[in-house]
């Protein structure tokens, strides 16, 4: 028996929702074309797009003052 939902019955096409990869649940990989079909040779998952931008990150501050080295010093000698 084939189950037909209301969207298919009316002839409209639905956009598949993104889903986490069931084969790699903790990797952050997602399937943007619907459910995971990795176990059956389906399309490969992709990394999810970032949710924050670089502008949202706090500024990085140095925890120590800059180090001044003598003129003739070299770390290689």
Overall structural class, as computed from helix and strand content, comes to little secondary structure
Distance between the termini: 80 Å
Percent helix: under 10%
Which band does the percent of strand residues land in? 5-15%
The succession of helices and strands, N to C, reads HEEE
User: What is the overall pLDDT average?
Assistant: 76
Strand element count: 3
Question: How is the main sheet built?
Answer: 3 strands, antiparallel
Determine Rg (CA atoms, Å).
26 Å
Strands of the biggest beta sheet: in what spatial order? 1-2-3
Low-pLDDT stretches: none
The number of distinct helices, counting runs of at least 4 residues, comes to: 1
3D architecture notes:
With 77 residues, the protein is mostly loops. Helix content is 6%, strand content 9%. The protein is built from one helix and three strands, in the order H-E-E-E. The protein has one helix at 6-10, and strands at residues 19-20, 29-31, 46-47. The chain has a three-stranded antiparallel β-sheet, with no helix packed on it. Strand 1 (19-20) and strand 2 form a beta hairpin. The longest helix is centred in the first third of the chain and has 5 residues, at 6-10. The chain is elongated. 3% of the residues are buried.
Indicate the topology.
Layout: H1 6-10, E1 19-20, E2 29-31, E3 46-47
Antiparallel strand pairs: 1-2, 2-3
């Amino acid at each position: 028996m084939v189950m037909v939902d209301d969207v298919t019955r009316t002839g409209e096409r639905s956009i598949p929702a993104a889903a986490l990869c069931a084969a790699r649940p903790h990797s952050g990989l997602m399937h943007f074309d619907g459910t995971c079909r990795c176990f059956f040779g389906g399309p490969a998952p992709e990394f999810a797009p970032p949710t924050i931008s670089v502008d949202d990150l706090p500024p990085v501050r140095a925890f120590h003052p800059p180090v001044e080295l003598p003129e003739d010093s070299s770390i290689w000698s």
